[in-house]
Automatic annotation (TrEMBL):
<dbReference type="GO" id="GO:0006749">
    <property type="term" value="P:glutathione metabolic process"/>
</dbReference>
<feature type="domain" description="GST N-terminal">
    <location>
        <begin position="2"/>
        <end position="83"/>
    </location>
</feature>
<dbReference type="GO" id="GO:0004364">
    <property type="term" value="F:glutathione transferase activity"/>
</dbReference>
<protein>
    <recommendedName>
        <fullName>glutathione transferase</fullName>
        <ecNumber>2.5.1.18</ecNumber>
    </recommendedName>
</protein>
<dbReference type="InterPro" id="IPR040079">
    <property type="entry name" value="Glutathione_S-Trfase"/>
</dbReference>
<dbReference type="InterPro" id="IPR004046">
    <property type="entry name" value="GST_C"/>
</dbReference>
<dbReference type="InterPro" id="IPR004045">
    <property type="entry name" value="Glutathione_S-Trfase_N"/>
</dbReference>
<dbReference type="InterPro" id="IPR036249">
    <property type="entry name" value="Thioredoxin-like_sf"/>
</dbReference>
<dbReference type="Pfam" id="PF00043">
    <property type="entry name" value="GST_C"/>
</dbReference>
<dbReference type="GO" id="GO:0005737">
    <property type="term" value="C:cytoplasm"/>
</dbReference>
<dbReference type="InterPro" id="IPR036282">
    <property type="entry name" value="Glutathione-S-Trfase_C_sf"/>
</dbReference>
<feature type="domain" description="GST C-terminal">
    <location>
        <begin position="88"/>
        <end position="221"/>
    </location>
</feature>
<dbReference type="GO" id="GO:0043295">
    <property type="term" value="F:glutathione binding"/>
</dbReference>
<dbReference type="InterPro" id="IPR010987">
    <property type="entry name" value="Glutathione-S-Trfase_C-like"/>
</dbReference>
<dbReference type="Pfam" id="PF02798">
    <property type="entry name" value="GST_N"/>
</dbReference>
<comment type="similarity">
    <text>Belongs to the GST superfamily.</text>
</comment>
<keyword id="KW-0808">Transferase</keyword>
Amino acid sequence: MAILKLYGGKQASCTRRVATVLHELNVPFELIEVDVMNGAHKKPEYLKFQPFGQIPYIDDDGFILYETRAICRYIAAKYPKSGLIPTEPKANALFEQAASVELTNFDPSASKAGLQLWIKKMGYTYPTDDKVIADHLETLEKKLDAYEAILSKQRYVAGETITLADIFHLRYGVYVTYDGSESDNIMNRASRPNVARWYNELVSRPSWLAYLDGVKTTTAY
């Protein structure tokens, strides 16, 4: 069987999200780096496989799939023993609830503020807007108060075992920590000890640590 091919950027947020899930499941893959800086993702040969001209997409032995969360769900479904997508109806419902919470309550503010914080941290010349950052971080603080209530009762966002819903928070969850010092940032507030516990456990996982320097082809674990 052909090795799974991941088309994306080694430093790109969504590429790393997919690579993290692949690593969680010990799935070998080859990174095919897309030269986004020179517009390779907008050329006709790329658009044949990703009509929106975005990264990443995968080629799994001829099966093409794009959209990060869809890719992650496909991989987890292909390897169901991992439990990253629970199959028992009630557990699955709680997973879907948590995944929806990430998509609608966490990602909108975390992605908008986090990406700009990352640009500032890296010293890039792209324009940023401090008011946009502040507004989204203020919104996220309130959302994380709800997370604290949830995580005070259970280890992970969907229950007592880790799921894709937890992993989906990575990357932008890390980006928003650039709002403060390592010991006092939005994900590590003393006022939200359970959020801090959960977040620090996620960023300590080998699957996340594996690509601190960027995503790379991984054929052995």
